[in-house]
Amino acid sequence: MSFYTIQRLSDIQNESDRMLSPIDAYLKCSILTLDFSVKPLESLIPDITHNARIAKERTKQYPVDGLTQDESAAIYLYTMEWKPSKQSLYFYLNNALRAQNRRLLTPYAAYLKLILSGLQKLPSIAENVWSGVEADLSSRYRVGSTIVWWGLNTCVKSPQMLESAEFLSGNGTRTIFTIECRSGKQIRQHSYFPEEDEVLIMPGTLFEVRAETNAAPDLHVIHLKQVESKCPFAPPHPSHMRKPYHNSELENLIHHKASVQFAEFRDKSLNNEDVDIIASELVKNTYWQDLSLCENSIGSVGAASLSKALLTNSTLKQLRLVNNGLGDEGVEYIALALHVNTTLECLYMQGNKISSTGTMKLSVMLKINKSLTYIHLSDNNIGDDGMAALVKGLRLNKTLKHLDLTKNNITNRSAEVIEEIFSQNQTLLFLKLSENLFSNEIIFTLSQTAEQSNTCVYFT
């Protein structure tokens, strides 16, 4: 991730918890060209005219997504970085958007009209996005409260982007935001940094603070969920009028199991709507400590429903998802929830078509999760790349004790990184590597090395 994108991510720390009056300065403006839109800013922002010309030149080919060249160039200009950063357009614009004195927005009205016109033509994405700052913002985000972000705030689509910037793996005081957004705008096709998959949160977006956890001594993770807003910058999320789904047999079964500790729904041919029903119960149920959904083929959509429930549930200790075809996308949803969840201890994900891609999501999670002690990943296909990814996560993890990687197509190439576990991780007690592709010589060497560590390794 570039230094400049990190700077835009960090700009979120300038959001306040004040409720401001609506922003309407741009509503009465006509849509102008970029050249005319930035003229009122020439006395405020150094080199704005010069950089606007660069933005127009870089977007002179016919823009994608149905935007005009000027709309695309307005977004491009927003992502450009001045030196120093505090002279950049985004810095001045966001300060004005967050200011209590709405008259400060007047010079920006034409530019706001143009960039928002372009952003509103982009399809809204409804998925989890991420942001982070090198500061402790936890005191501003109390669980259960609602907050408004008034600026145009930058997020990224993958926690791996934050890891590359050392928000997750680094040291020092940090706050990570995991955000369920409904109307984010993916701008990579119109950005100065297209490789960074940037998502913009529209001004005036309203969030509920769903969870906050101290994931490491200096690392705070805050989970936000976008909720309805009447602000003109955040159109209401369309409600789909459809008859509510019911499964009376499943609902009766949930009712009978509502007060048990072990809730089993194995091999019930559950569909996505059924998993939604179970996830809704999981949000409010305080009795379930062990939930089994094995043999149901719930896939990534069902995993997304469970992920949202795990963000708020604080009693479940074991989750069994054996043979469900989660795939890498489904595993990512579960991993996202476990950045925040602090009570789940055991996770069973055998036979879920997980490759090295999904394992990388788990690796990022392991760096900050402080509750998981047991992960069962047998009968997947993580391979040597997945093994290397897990070792990266285990370098920082201090709680995992049992890891089962039976039958995962791991070969002799992984011998060196496995030895790293023995020398660097002091808490992993059991590592199962049966039915992989090791030679007898490598098995002997690894067994000998493991004897000098705290970890018992099994190859049979």
UniProtKB/TrEMBL annotation:
Catalysis: reaction(s): L-arginyl-[protein] + NAD(+) = N(omega)-(ADP-D-ribosyl)-L-arginyl-[protein] + nicotinamide + H(+)
SUPFAM superfamilies recorded: ADP-ribosylation, RNI-like
Keyword Transferase: yes
First-tier enzyme category under EC: transferase
Any Pfam family hit: LRR_6
This protein's UniProt keywords: Glycosyltransferase, NAD, NADP, Nucleotidyltransferase, Transferase
Entry EC no(s): 2.4.2.31
Gene Ontology MF terms: NAD+-protein-arginine ADP-ribosyltransferase activity; nucleotidyltransferase activity
Family: Belongs to the Arg-specific ADP-ribosyltransferase family.
Name the record gives this protein: NAD(P)(+)--arginine ADP-ribosyltransferase
